Amino acid sequence: MRGAFIIIAACLAALAACGSAQNAGARADENPMTAGKELIVLAAPRAGDPYYADRAEDIFDFHVAYARQIEGRDDVLILTDAETYPDYAKALGEHRVAIAPMDDIWMRDFAPSNAADPVMFRYTAAGQGGGRAGQRDADAVQETLAGIIDEMGLSYRASDLLNDGGNFVEDGAGRAVVSRKFLRDNALNETDARAALKSLAGAEHVAFIEADEQGGLEHADGVVAFVAPNVLVVNSYPEDPDYAAALRADLEAGLPGVVIREIVTPYDASDIHDERFGSACGLYTNMLATPERIYFPQFGVPEDQKALAQMRQWTDKEVVPVRSDTVCPMGGGVRCMSWQTRGDNAKRLLSLLESRRVSPL
User: Fold this and answer.
1) Beta 231-235 vs 259-263: how paired, if at all?
2) Domain hosting residue 260, numbered range
3) pLDDT digits (tens, 9 = 90+) for 5-57
4) By the 8 A CB rule, do 76 and 70 touch?
5) Distance (Å, rounded) from C-alpha 134 to C-alpha 313?
6) Does residue 8 lie within any of the structural domains?
7) SS3 label, residue 50
8) Are 340 and 39 in contact (CB under 8 A)?
9) Is 361 part of a structural domain of the chain?
10) Number of separate domains in the chain
11) CA gap 235, 224 in Å, rounded
12) Strand locations in 21-174 (E)
Protein backbone atom coordinates (compact mmCIF):
# COMPACT_ATOMS: atom_id res chain seq x y z
CA MET A 1 0.00 0.00 0.00
CA ARG A 2 1.05 3.64 -0.40
CA GLY A 3 -0.91 6.91 1.87
CA ALA A 4 -4.34 8.49 3.74
CA PHE A 5 -6.10 11.51 5.13
CA ILE A 6 -7.77 12.85 8.18
CA ILE A 7 -8.34 16.49 9.13
CA ILE A 8 -6.89 16.71 12.63
CA ALA A 9 -6.14 19.54 15.01
CA ALA A 10 -2.94 21.46 14.46
CA CYS A 11 -1.90 21.08 18.06
CA LEU A 12 -2.14 18.21 20.54
CA ALA A 13 -3.93 18.46 23.85
CA ALA A 14 -1.70 19.89 26.57
CA LEU A 15 -1.53 16.61 28.46
CA ALA A 16 -0.08 14.72 25.52
CA ALA A 17 2.34 17.54 24.82
CA CYS A 18 3.59 17.43 28.40
CA GLY A 19 3.95 13.68 28.22
CA SER A 20 6.01 14.03 25.07
CA ALA A 21 8.24 16.62 26.73
CA GLN A 22 8.80 14.37 29.74
CA ASN A 23 9.69 11.43 27.55
CA ALA A 24 12.12 13.55 25.54
CA GLY A 25 13.82 14.77 28.69
CA ALA A 26 14.28 11.26 30.04
CA ARG A 27 16.96 10.44 27.47
CA ALA A 28 17.84 13.90 26.20
CA ASP A 29 21.54 13.04 26.19
CA GLU A 30 20.87 10.43 23.49
CA ASN A 31 18.49 12.47 21.35
CA PRO A 32 19.55 16.11 21.17
CA MET A 33 17.89 18.25 18.51
CA THR A 34 20.81 20.46 17.59
CA ALA A 35 20.14 23.95 16.26
CA GLY A 36 20.33 23.99 12.49
CA LYS A 37 19.57 20.31 12.11
CA GLU A 38 16.55 18.72 10.53
CA LEU A 39 14.97 15.43 11.51
CA ILE A 40 14.65 13.03 8.60
CA VAL A 41 12.03 10.34 9.19
CA LEU A 42 12.02 7.04 7.28
CA ALA A 43 9.51 4.18 7.39
CA ALA A 44 10.31 0.49 7.06
CA PRO A 45 7.84 -1.79 5.29
CA ARG A 46 5.83 -4.00 7.60
CA ALA A 47 7.19 -7.51 7.97
CA GLY A 48 5.69 -9.80 5.36
CA ASP A 49 4.19 -7.02 3.23
CA PRO A 50 3.75 -8.85 -0.09
CA TYR A 51 4.11 -5.70 -2.19
CA TYR A 52 7.64 -5.10 -0.92
CA ALA A 53 8.66 -8.72 -0.34
CA ASP A 54 11.05 -8.86 -3.31
CA ARG A 55 12.67 -5.56 -2.32
CA ALA A 56 12.64 -5.81 1.48
CA GLU A 57 16.36 -6.44 1.81
CA ASP A 58 17.14 -3.66 -0.67
CA ILE A 59 14.98 -1.23 1.30
CA PHE A 60 16.67 -2.24 4.56
CA ASP A 61 20.15 -1.80 3.07
CA PHE A 62 19.20 1.58 1.63
CA HIS A 63 17.73 2.79 4.92
CA VAL A 64 20.79 1.72 6.90
CA ALA A 65 23.26 3.28 4.47
CA TYR A 66 21.21 6.48 4.22
CA ALA A 67 20.82 6.75 7.99
CA ARG A 68 24.56 6.37 8.45
CA GLN A 69 25.12 9.26 6.04
CA ILE A 70 22.63 11.38 7.95
CA GLU A 71 24.11 10.52 11.36
CA GLY A 72 26.34 13.32 12.61
CA ARG A 73 24.93 15.75 10.07
CA ASP A 74 21.17 15.85 10.72
CA ASP A 75 18.97 13.64 12.89
CA VAL A 76 17.25 10.49 11.67
CA LEU A 77 14.35 8.42 12.97
CA ILE A 78 13.24 5.13 11.41
CA LEU A 79 9.70 3.92 12.11
CA THR A 80 9.28 0.13 12.13
CA ASP A 81 6.94 -2.57 13.30
CA ALA A 82 7.83 -4.87 16.21
CA GLU A 83 9.20 -7.59 13.92
CA THR A 84 11.60 -5.41 11.95
CA TYR A 85 12.65 -3.27 14.92
CA PRO A 86 15.44 -5.62 16.11
CA ASP A 87 17.16 -5.64 12.71
CA TYR A 88 17.16 -1.86 12.43
CA ALA A 89 18.15 -1.38 16.08
CA LYS A 90 21.05 -3.82 15.67
CA ALA A 91 22.29 -2.02 12.57
CA LEU A 92 21.82 1.56 13.77
CA GLY A 93 21.30 1.46 17.53
CA GLU A 94 18.08 1.90 19.46
CA HIS A 95 18.60 5.66 19.59
CA ARG A 96 17.45 5.98 15.97
CA VAL A 97 14.57 3.48 15.75
CA ALA A 98 11.01 3.53 17.12
CA ILE A 99 8.14 1.07 16.90
CA ALA A 100 5.44 3.02 15.09
CA PRO A 101 4.52 0.95 12.02
CA MET A 102 3.51 2.81 8.89
CA ASP A 103 1.47 1.30 6.07
CA ASP A 104 3.89 2.46 3.39
CA ILE A 105 7.51 3.53 2.94
CA TRP A 106 7.07 6.72 0.86
CA MET A 107 6.92 9.13 3.79
CA ARG A 108 7.32 12.21 1.59
CA ASP A 109 3.92 11.72 0.00
CA PHE A 110 1.59 11.30 2.98
CA ALA A 111 3.43 13.33 5.64
CA PRO A 112 3.24 17.11 6.11
CA SER A 113 5.10 19.07 3.42
CA ASN A 114 7.41 22.07 3.94
CA ALA A 115 9.48 21.71 7.11
CA ALA A 116 9.59 25.50 7.59
CA ASP A 117 5.78 25.84 7.70
CA PRO A 118 4.22 22.35 7.64
CA VAL A 119 1.03 21.60 5.74
CA MET A 120 -0.59 18.21 5.24
CA PHE A 121 -2.38 17.75 1.95
CA ARG A 122 -4.74 14.86 1.39
CA TYR A 123 -2.68 12.01 -0.05
CA THR A 124 -3.96 11.10 -3.50
CA ALA A 125 -5.23 7.82 -4.88
CA ALA A 126 -2.43 7.79 -7.47
CA GLY A 127 0.05 6.73 -4.79
CA GLN A 128 -2.03 3.62 -4.13
CA GLY A 129 -2.80 2.72 -7.74
CA GLY A 130 -5.68 5.10 -8.46
CA GLY A 131 -9.47 4.90 -8.38
CA ARG A 132 -11.85 4.74 -5.44
CA ALA A 133 -10.09 1.76 -3.91
CA GLY A 134 -6.79 3.59 -4.21
CA GLN A 135 -8.20 6.62 -2.41
CA ARG A 136 -9.53 4.44 0.41
CA ASP A 137 -6.08 2.91 0.76
CA ALA A 138 -4.44 6.32 0.58
CA ASP A 139 -6.69 7.66 3.32
CA ALA A 140 -5.95 4.64 5.51
CA VAL A 141 -2.19 5.06 5.11
CA GLN A 142 -2.32 8.74 6.00
CA GLU A 143 -4.60 8.14 8.98
CA THR A 144 -1.97 5.83 10.48
CA LEU A 145 0.59 8.64 10.39
CA ALA A 146 -2.00 11.20 11.50
CA GLY A 147 -2.53 9.15 14.65
CA ILE A 148 1.16 9.47 15.53
CA ILE A 149 1.20 13.17 14.69
CA ASP A 150 -1.86 13.74 16.87
CA GLU A 151 -0.41 11.79 19.76
CA MET A 152 2.94 13.59 19.65
CA GLY A 153 1.38 17.03 19.35
CA LEU A 154 2.93 18.24 16.12
CA SER A 155 1.92 21.63 14.76
CA TYR A 156 0.89 22.01 11.13
CA ARG A 157 -1.96 23.05 8.88
CA ALA A 158 -4.28 20.46 7.33
CA SER A 159 -6.06 20.72 4.00
CA ASP A 160 -8.50 18.64 1.99
CA LEU A 161 -6.69 19.64 -1.21
CA LEU A 162 -5.42 16.52 -2.93
CA ASN A 163 -1.66 16.43 -3.40
CA ASP A 164 1.32 14.19 -2.65
CA GLY A 165 4.34 15.62 -0.88
CA GLY A 166 6.41 14.57 -3.87
CA ASN A 167 4.42 17.06 -5.89
CA PHE A 168 5.23 20.03 -3.68
CA VAL A 169 8.82 21.16 -4.24
CA GLU A 170 9.52 24.27 -2.16
CA ASP A 171 12.54 26.47 -1.45
CA GLY A 172 11.54 27.43 2.10
CA ALA A 173 11.33 31.07 1.02
CA GLY A 174 7.88 31.30 -0.53
CA ARG A 175 8.36 29.53 -3.85
CA ALA A 176 7.06 26.17 -5.00
CA VAL A 177 6.86 23.96 -8.07
CA VAL A 178 3.81 21.71 -8.54
CA SER A 179 2.75 19.61 -11.50
CA ARG A 180 -0.56 20.35 -13.19
CA LYS A 181 -1.92 17.10 -11.83
CA PHE A 182 -2.71 19.21 -8.75
CA LEU A 183 -5.02 21.35 -10.88
CA ARG A 184 -6.84 18.34 -12.31
CA ASP A 185 -7.16 16.56 -8.97
CA ASN A 186 -8.73 19.61 -7.34
CA ALA A 187 -10.64 21.04 -10.33
CA LEU A 188 -8.79 24.35 -10.03
CA ASN A 189 -7.42 26.80 -12.55
CA GLU A 190 -3.92 28.19 -12.02
CA THR A 191 -5.13 31.48 -10.54
CA ASP A 192 -7.27 29.81 -7.90
CA ALA A 193 -4.63 27.17 -7.20
CA ARG A 194 -1.98 29.83 -6.61
CA ALA A 195 -4.29 31.65 -4.23
CA ALA A 196 -4.99 28.44 -2.33
CA LEU A 197 -1.30 27.53 -2.04
CA LYS A 198 -0.42 31.05 -0.94
CA SER A 199 -3.04 30.96 1.79
CA LEU A 200 -2.28 27.41 2.89
CA ALA A 201 1.47 27.05 2.41
CA GLY A 202 2.74 30.62 2.18
CA ALA A 203 3.75 30.15 -1.46
CA GLU A 204 4.12 33.65 -2.92
CA HIS A 205 5.17 32.26 -6.29
CA VAL A 206 4.14 28.91 -7.78
CA ALA A 207 5.23 27.36 -11.07
CA PHE A 208 2.89 24.76 -12.52
CA ILE A 209 4.64 22.32 -14.83
CA GLU A 210 3.72 19.34 -16.94
CA ALA A 211 5.18 16.12 -15.57
CA ASP A 212 7.73 14.48 -17.85
CA GLU A 213 5.64 11.29 -17.79
CA GLN A 214 1.88 11.63 -17.95
CA GLY A 215 -0.32 9.37 -15.85
CA GLY A 216 0.58 7.80 -12.53
CA LEU A 217 2.18 9.96 -9.85
CA GLU A 218 3.28 13.00 -11.93
CA HIS A 219 5.44 14.34 -9.10
CA ALA A 220 7.43 17.53 -9.54
CA ASP A 221 10.32 16.16 -7.46
CA GLY A 222 11.29 13.80 -10.26
CA VAL A 223 11.80 16.84 -12.51
CA VAL A 224 13.13 19.72 -10.39
CA ALA A 225 14.81 20.43 -7.04
CA PHE A 226 15.45 23.67 -5.19
CA VAL A 227 19.02 23.92 -3.88
CA ALA A 228 18.69 27.52 -2.62
CA PRO A 229 16.00 30.22 -2.65
CA ASN A 230 14.85 30.58 -6.27
CA VAL A 231 17.66 28.33 -7.55
CA LEU A 232 16.44 25.17 -9.29
CA VAL A 233 18.22 22.09 -10.57
CA VAL A 234 16.30 20.45 -13.42
CA ASN A 235 16.71 17.26 -15.41
CA SER A 236 18.23 17.45 -18.87
CA TYR A 237 16.04 16.25 -21.73
CA PRO A 238 18.27 16.08 -24.81
CA GLU A 239 15.89 13.59 -26.42
CA ASP A 240 12.90 15.90 -25.91
CA PRO A 241 13.88 19.53 -26.54
CA ASP A 242 10.24 20.63 -26.86
CA TYR A 243 9.48 19.41 -23.34
CA ALA A 244 12.67 20.99 -22.00
CA ALA A 245 11.72 24.34 -23.53
CA ALA A 246 8.15 24.17 -22.18
CA LEU A 247 9.46 23.26 -18.72
CA ARG A 248 11.82 26.21 -18.65
CA ALA A 249 9.06 28.54 -19.84
CA ASP A 250 6.68 27.35 -17.11
CA LEU A 251 9.36 27.75 -14.42
CA GLU A 252 10.34 31.24 -15.54
CA ALA A 253 6.69 32.31 -15.77
CA GLY A 254 5.84 31.12 -12.27
CA LEU A 255 9.09 32.01 -10.49
CA PRO A 256 10.30 35.51 -11.46
CA GLY A 257 14.09 35.69 -11.61
CA VAL A 258 14.57 31.95 -11.09
CA VAL A 259 18.06 30.55 -11.71
CA ILE A 260 17.89 27.20 -13.53
CA ARG A 261 20.73 24.66 -13.54
CA GLU A 262 20.45 21.67 -15.86
CA ILE A 263 21.97 18.48 -14.47
CA VAL A 264 23.11 15.36 -16.31
CA THR A 265 20.26 12.82 -16.32
CA PRO A 266 21.14 9.18 -17.12
CA TYR A 267 17.53 8.01 -16.78
CA ASP A 268 17.21 4.21 -16.73
CA ALA A 269 13.87 2.41 -16.94
CA SER A 270 15.29 -1.05 -17.61
CA ASP A 271 14.27 -2.35 -14.16
CA ILE A 272 10.85 -1.26 -12.88
CA HIS A 273 9.22 -2.75 -9.78
CA ASP A 274 5.70 -1.51 -10.60
CA GLU A 275 4.74 -0.26 -14.05
CA ARG A 276 2.23 2.15 -12.51
CA PHE A 277 5.02 4.19 -10.90
CA GLY A 278 7.95 3.91 -13.29
CA SER A 279 11.59 4.31 -12.29
CA ALA A 280 13.58 6.99 -10.48
CA CYS A 281 16.95 5.61 -11.59
CA GLY A 282 19.20 8.35 -12.90
CA LEU A 283 17.08 11.19 -11.51
CA TYR A 284 19.46 13.27 -9.40
CA THR A 285 16.66 15.80 -8.94
CA ASN A 286 15.16 13.43 -6.35
CA MET A 287 17.71 14.82 -3.92
CA LEU A 288 16.88 15.91 -0.36
CA ALA A 289 17.82 19.50 0.44
CA THR A 290 18.09 20.79 4.01
CA PRO A 291 19.24 24.26 5.10
CA GLU A 292 22.86 23.11 5.37
CA ARG A 293 23.29 20.10 3.10
CA ILE A 294 22.00 18.06 0.19
CA TYR A 295 21.58 14.28 0.33
CA PHE A 296 22.33 13.37 -3.22
CA PRO A 297 21.34 10.14 -5.00
CA GLN A 298 23.98 8.00 -6.65
CA PHE A 299 23.19 5.12 -8.99
CA GLY A 300 26.48 3.33 -9.56
CA VAL A 301 26.83 4.78 -13.07
CA PRO A 302 29.63 6.84 -14.67
CA GLU A 303 27.48 10.00 -14.60
CA ASP A 304 27.47 9.96 -10.80
CA GLN A 305 30.80 11.78 -10.58
CA LYS A 306 29.80 14.40 -13.13
CA ALA A 307 26.54 15.04 -11.30
CA LEU A 308 28.39 15.39 -7.99
CA ALA A 309 30.81 17.83 -9.52
CA GLN A 310 27.95 19.87 -10.98
CA MET A 311 26.17 20.06 -7.64
CA ARG A 312 29.30 21.07 -5.76
CA GLN A 313 29.83 23.83 -8.29
CA TRP A 314 26.26 25.12 -7.88
CA THR A 315 25.94 25.10 -4.08
CA ASP A 316 27.94 25.94 -0.97
CA LYS A 317 25.99 23.31 0.96
CA GLU A 318 27.62 20.00 1.84
CA VAL A 319 26.67 17.47 -0.85
CA VAL A 320 26.33 14.01 0.73
CA PRO A 321 26.21 11.05 -1.70
CA VAL A 322 23.60 8.34 -0.99
CA ARG A 323 23.54 5.14 -3.06
CA SER A 324 20.00 4.71 -4.38
CA ASP A 325 20.32 2.13 -7.15
CA THR A 326 18.72 -0.67 -5.11
CA VAL A 327 15.48 1.26 -4.53
CA CYS A 328 15.13 3.55 -7.55
CA PRO A 329 13.39 0.82 -9.62
CA MET A 330 10.44 1.26 -7.23
CA GLY A 331 9.97 4.83 -8.43
CA GLY A 332 11.65 6.84 -5.70
CA GLY A 333 14.65 7.22 -3.47
CA VAL A 334 16.29 9.82 -1.27
CA ARG A 335 13.59 12.52 -1.23
CA CYS A 336 10.63 10.21 -1.77
CA MET A 337 11.39 8.18 1.33
CA SER A 338 12.11 11.16 3.58
CA TRP A 339 9.81 13.22 5.75
CA GLN A 340 11.64 16.37 6.90
CA THR A 341 10.77 18.23 10.07
CA ARG A 342 12.50 20.58 12.46
CA GLY A 343 12.17 22.55 15.69
CA ASP A 344 9.52 21.56 18.24
CA ASN A 345 7.93 19.09 15.82
CA ALA A 346 11.24 17.25 15.52
CA LYS A 347 11.75 17.22 19.29
CA ARG A 348 8.32 15.73 19.84
CA LEU A 349 8.86 13.04 17.23
CA LEU A 350 12.17 12.11 18.78
CA SER A 351 10.34 11.40 22.04
CA LEU A 352 8.92 8.36 20.21
CA LEU A 353 12.29 6.77 20.85
CA GLU A 354 11.51 6.60 24.53
CA SER A 355 8.04 5.11 24.40
CA ARG A 356 8.26 2.89 21.30
CA ARG A 357 11.53 1.01 21.63
CA VAL A 358 10.48 -2.39 22.84
CA SER A 359 6.69 -2.56 22.81
CA PRO A 360 4.43 -2.48 19.74
CA LEU A 361 1.66 0.09 19.43
Assistant:
1) parallel
2) 14-355
3) 333 333 323 223 333 333 333 333 334 444 579 999 999 999 999 999 999 99
4) yes
5) 42
6) no
7) helix
8) yes
9) no
10) 1
11) 7
12) 39-43, 75-80, 97-99, 119-122, 157-162, 169-170
